[in-house]
Amino acid sequence: MNKWFLIIALSLPLAxxxxxxxxxxxxxxxxxxxxxxxxxxxxxxxxVGGSVFVNGKVRDSxxxVGGSVxxxxxxxxxxxxxxxxxxxKQAQGSKIHG
Length: 98
Description:
This protein is mainly β.
């Protein structure tokens, strides 16, 4: 239980944080899903208490705590895909380079 509290507590300050331009932002959501649409690129995609849906490009990592990471046919992940508590679902054609 303490580990989950620590993860959530450390993620709270990032909830509305955008890094750099719209093309290089970090998407963090607490209590809802993160969606990276086709044709969109973000640095990281993180959902705490929700899932991450990717059909665009995530340069670094896609992470869901208490949800799934679902990669569509056009998803491209630069480093890691992590789901704590549920599952990672990878469609044919998606790419993970990490």
